[in-house]
Amino acid sequence: MKLLSNSILLISVILLTFYVGKANAYSGFSLQQLVQQDTSKKDTTKIKVKNNSDLDKKIEYKATDSVRFSKDKSIIYMYGNARVIYGDFELDADYIRYDQKNNIIYASGKTDPKTKRYVGRPIFKSGTEGSAVADSLYYNSATTRAKVYGVYSEQEGGFFSGGQSKKQVDNELHIKNMMYSTCNLPHPHFGLMISKGIATEKQIITGPVYMQIEDVPTPFALPFAFFPKTNKRTSGIILPTPGEDASRGFFLQNAGYYLGLNDYWDAKLMGTIYTNGSYEATLSSNYIKRYKFNGNINLNYANTKNGIQGQENIGKNFRIGWSHSQNPNASPGSTFTASVNVSSSTYYQATAANTTYDQRAIATNTSTSSIAYSKVLAGGLFNFSTALSAQQTFSTRQIYLQLPQFNLNMSTISPFDSKNRSGEQKWYQKITVGYSLQGNNTISTADSVLFKPEGLRRLQTGFSHSIPIGMNFTLLKYLTFSMGGTYNEVWNFQSINKRFTTFTDGTYTSRIDTLSGFKRGGSYNLSTSMSTKVYGKTREFKNLGNIQQLRHVMTPSVSFSYSPDFTDPSKGIFKEAIDQNGKFIINPSTGRPVTYSSLEGMAYPGSFSTEQASIGFILDNTTELKVRSPKDTTGTGFRKIPIIQGLSFSGSYNLLAPSKKLTPISFSGRSQFTDKLGINYNGTLNPYVLRDSTNNGAFVQNVEIDRYFWQDGKYFPRLTNFGFSFDYGFNAAAVKKKNENYDALKGQVEKQGMTPLQSEQLNAINRDPNAFVDFNIPWNFAFQYRFDYTNNLGVSTITNTLNFNGDFNLTPKWKFTFNSGYDFKNQGLTPMNIAIYRDLHCWDMSVNWIPYGAYKSYSVTIKVKSSILQDLKLSKRQGFYNTYQ
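RE: above sequence
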């Protein structure tokens, strides 16, 4: 183990030395893209000179100050915003000298006597290449050779500056002492110094190359380098990040190889090794077919050893991720999507959320995956969709699979109406019919036996049919009526049989046997409903400032539904409970035999209830204020402020129920007071009172009896549960900016396909509102709060959750962010994540710190902003993986 540790340390030093090699592997050189300056403010001279060396080309030149000639007229001197055009060569400078005999053009700037700064540098362009800036240059108009000093040019996010370059006849470029950097300043903060090299159309060959930071040479160097200049993906080695972990030891992280397979598909294989024996492997691939589809695949495997030597917690974990999206225009009428996230139950904890230390990801208890396809059939009459889905519960290690589920829905039609009908519909032409078919294959079992015979035997298969029939009409202009019914039928290929055993004390137990075979059951119901709207409006307020009026809208709805008794054993679905002696088990409360459904727990158990005749009611309320707008100068502008949005009460009364005919009344609503503050609330009101009682001679406290609260002289029903939640952001501009960043990144992903970096950014944004660090937003603070109250037979429980996050600029270049919460039960803060960012112009520095908790850790990263040199970074990380054990 010590040998492995020393080996990794030695390799780390070597890799740091050769970092510069990879950083420049994607760079290329050409005189590229700068904004062309207009130097022709005053055109004092504009002369065309015929060049004897090339009769087809003419020299055009001008200057705003003066133009002078030598005695023999062979040399032209141009001063002040001079400009020369020769074929496809364009040159602007403060001073230009043209030697017609030798076909030499020389250009330079000048030193401003007041500021002592060098100004008026030559700006030149040749052919299809972009513009470039230089300190001075020589150009041979006959041979097109050029020699440039102190060049500054840009290409694909990289900048070349300083040194000398010489252009040959064959467009081969010789360079010397030139700096390459992603810093866009003429004097960059850092760069790769190329002592000498040759650049052609397809490659760059250099001599010694070393890194230079703030004009200070560093020992990170290469004796020579070869860089291909291909305008396509190129395979290459991915250098690792060396570091140390408090639990796993020294490590080399994310070393691997990148495969640029083609323009539509790539792959990346990476691995991480630790000196204590842990290792991780990752295979990721991105694919895209423009205007068709895009997606990515990620496979992760981790063999972890956390803890001190001799007491390690060894585990093997995996994760499979797949994301696929189809362009809506690729195949109109059909869609195909995939979002797969399958992992072992301890993957996120053992790997610290893939070394992101994201507390939300680490605390995730469930994972869902789905693969879905849909298609419109028969000109839009039918809609077919199918999906494979999985849901994992990490704490119980249970997994629920649907393999697959499908739906076939028919659009609602009016079978008795005519397409060529004229005039109003007759009553029978208002009848509508629909149809839907569902199929499902499900498995619910422990993940350890999923692919074993005992797990596969839990497969449940079934179909469900539904045929709704309805008719809508309006009565007395204000009352909307609807009536109809629904027939439901389920088909299952498994059913159950229960074996009961009774005991001398009157109790009993049961065992369930699953039987294979086709089993069907049908049910139906009839219903009718009526709804309307009632508008209430107050008179105008005169003494309440800008408040003008209060408006209240109520939407009452009453319905009646009837369904016969489908629990009768004679109908073949329900069975009577018979014990080991062949006797019926009697329910003491009803005096009738106990029954159970043979489709209980199946893919489609159906809805088979006793005879019901229920009256349902819903009352929806909306209240808003009419307020004069202070921004309106005419005095006639108003705006509406919603006070209550959708406060609804609902319940039902079963006329045929033997007891407790009235169900508990539930309510829910929301209020949006401002753009920043909105509240959601919900609860349940129980109309029945509690009384102390006895059961077989034993005293029982707080038993719910069939007696309404008003019968005991009470004014309000019991509040059995209540909850409300709200979130508030103090800086609306911050929320808006982050949403814009998210939408922009999401749009880029949809158009071009998702890279691993973009995928991680989207995931981070969904988990953490501070994922985007924007120095233009000086501060932000937001919090989310939820309160829940439950009262179960007199025993009340209260839970509170509070989460908060924010950021602020310490200076225009320093940003401080934090994310935490408060645990009211344990009366303490939840794990906090603190981050400090420093904008170093062309570099970024970030410090991430989790000061306490199971994943106490910190990391320091300094990296180049540009994606070209995104692997040029210095990192320091320390983690405490073993503290959660």
